[in-house]
Amino acid sequence: MNKxxxxxxxxxxxxxxxxxxxxxxxxxxxxxxxxxxxxxxxxKAPRADFKGAxxxxxxxxxxxxxxxxxxxxxxxxxxxxxxxxxxxxxFKRIETAFNLNTTNGTPAFMxxxxxxxxxxxxIAALLIExxxxxxxxxxxxxxxKRGGVENLSPYWxxxxxxxxxxxxxxxxxxxxxxxxxGGPLTTLVLPPENSTQNTLWHQLWLNVLTEEEMLEQxxxxxLGGLPATFPWMTDTRTSExxxxxxxxxxAHPLQMYWSMPRRxxxxxxxxxxxxxxxxxxxxxxxxxxxxxxxxxxxxTGNWVHSLTPYSLEAGNEPxxxxxxxxxxxxxxxxGLAVSDESGKAKKVPATVVQNYLKTRCHxxxxxxxxxxxxxxxxxxxxxxxxxxxxANMPIFNLEGEALxxxxxxxxxMVQAAVDVLKTLKSALKIAWFKxxxxxxxxxxxxxxxxxxxxxxxxxxxxxxxxxxxxKDDEDSAKKLLISWANRLKQSARELFxxxxxxxxxxxxxxxRVIKAKHGKGGLEHYLNGSKALxxxxx
Length: 538
What we know:
- The chain is of the alpha+beta class.
- It folds into two domains: about 5-295, no CATH class; about 400-538.
- The protein has helices at about 50-65, 70-80, 85-90, 135, 155-165, 200-205, 210-215, 225-230, 335, 350-365, 400-430, 445-470, 475-500, 510-520, 525-530, 530-535, and strands at about 15-20, 25, 40-45, 120, 185-190, 265, 270-275, 280-285, 290-295, 310, 320, 345-350, 370-380, 385-395.
- A three-stranded antiparallel β-sheet has the order 2-1-3. A three-stranded antiparallel β-sheet has the order 4-9-6, with no helix packed on it. A three-stranded antiparallel β-sheet has the order 5-13-14.
């Protein structure tokens, strides 16, 4: 293939961004620092998971080719973003790893080095939510139908492939999961929304480690050359047999950003021009299919990704925190924004979050503005994508005893909320059914409404508690915790009244509803006796 015709994610202008004025641009990756007085503030992608993946792609490229040597250099580029020329020069040494339309036996971004044979699949199968082969054969694709996307432009095919590789769920025998496990959560630190530094560059730079910090990450720093970082630059480390796993000592630490568990090769010989099935944009090339094979790289051992929170338990390998039914909310703040040791396993935030609290908040120098935590990921049931979730949460510029106090406040608040929700659902079952203990059914809507109704108040009070923790003002903090207890009770009562006489009530027995709210063993009885609520005032 003619070298001049090769498409490349780094050298080609393809990245859709938006500036502060709301104008959209298509830029090269080397322009992410801004140009011609245009400060880009957001990536505009056709899908939410692609947007999250592109942020990770850009962070990975910066980490690989433009990592600051130390805190001094990190602060330099925080104050003044690099020029396009600086980034172009830095990215040149890894550019060949981002070629797209190459032939088997030559490196192609996120594709098996040489995969002449495999199972042919439609291009839509790159999308995580697409029904699998058995689902289609069994005609069981009832909710997510086949044939939704028939073609992709080269760049969006590459992003779809990257999204699949870094989130890869279980996909049948020998189809390996991502380095972080199937469907991991990703958490990024972002500047405050009202900050002048809430630009795309600063959003990315907050999540880039220094070279000194990278030396502390899991992996083998003695391995050199592009193949140690980019697994598609050489023959694939396949995993047909036991003993062929890939441990951190088998790869450079940077491979955590570029893990490639799936063996895939895109079909370029079928490409033609037309409209991309995802972006709706005209493209001179469209991809319709690819072929794949199982037993790709099997990442095993103590891998820890810098952008993902983990659950740590003595004697076990780190377990990445995954998306769960019900979405992301304030009940997950502990473990995502600060460490949580309340359970058997210790939940720790992503490395970038820990590093922000240890160093970045001091390097930046302005502790009056609190950054945000952007958490996102799929809720996977093995190979089935149930939902995509994302949420923004606050991070507070605290350390030491002040941070420990805030953790304790948040833990007590969440425990009280969990207890009240349990009480609410129990009371509703009493109101609805003659035999509540035998009642079955999906009560997830009640959960969702309860968490939604109390979320804004939780974060409002948490922000005030953060200020009081820094002042060591326990008396004022206690008043806020009592206010939270009252809010929980109010929300439980309102939701009980809303649901008690709903269609779930099997016979419309109003006396049973009154008893469920005010009688012994009812809502008010449990709210008044709740140990978790009383603990807030203790």
